[in-house]
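Before any further analysis, we paired sequence with structure tokens, yielding the entry below:
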Amino acid sequence: MEYVDINRIISADGLRIVLVHGRPSPWGVAAKAMMEYKGLDYIVGPQEPGGANPELVTWAGTNSAPVVAWNEATPINRWDDILILLDRLAPDKLLIPQDGNERVQLFGLSHEICGELGFGWNRRLDMIRPAMDSGEPPELAVNLSDKYGYKADVALANQRTIALLELLTGILMMQKDKGSDYLIGRQVTAADFYWAAFSNLVVIQPPEECPVDPAVRPLFENTPAAVAAAVDPVLIEHRNRIMRAHFKIPMEL
């Protein structure tokens, strides 16, 4: 995958995405995979983790990734806004169900994975916990702590993570009993993409599939025992099946 200069991203037409450079950040991993599933053409720019990224901030109003832009429209970075845009751009391969009940399930479940105080949010809080408990946390950890409400929410982070893992396990078991390999209905939806990408926050893929910098990999491997125990094999079976079918392996970082 070729990263282009952020200023080219800002000035270009068409579909653009800014990803966290060199990290399997699941919000961006899922968005990129959905673009590829839909056959959409796009160019990629880098958000440097820990950097000020001033051009990105000025353009998109955020120092977080992913950021997605289409032609001259205002850049967006919320998972649901990105999903809605992608379905509008490629309605022949919808990832939001057309059935009303399934659509409600999709947005509810996806929020529990991607949204504020959801799975990714809570895993991120726990991942910075060692640095924050060290007595001399680095500036990046302090900035993330302030940005994501560490003091208010870290105490419940693992409890919330385990609850979501148990919920997903139950859903997949019920779906399996119905003869479905997917989280919702009988065909792939955005929820399947989200879980596949976010699963790396509890059981990261091996280096040959997710070639993250060896210096960074321990951050993703440091899953607390109680959380690891809640990862039922059905969750990883689902991740691997969706990854093989719909993601580029090895992952492009």
Q: What stands out?
A: Residues 157-177 form the longest helix (21 residues). The beta strands are 15-20, 43-47, 67-70.
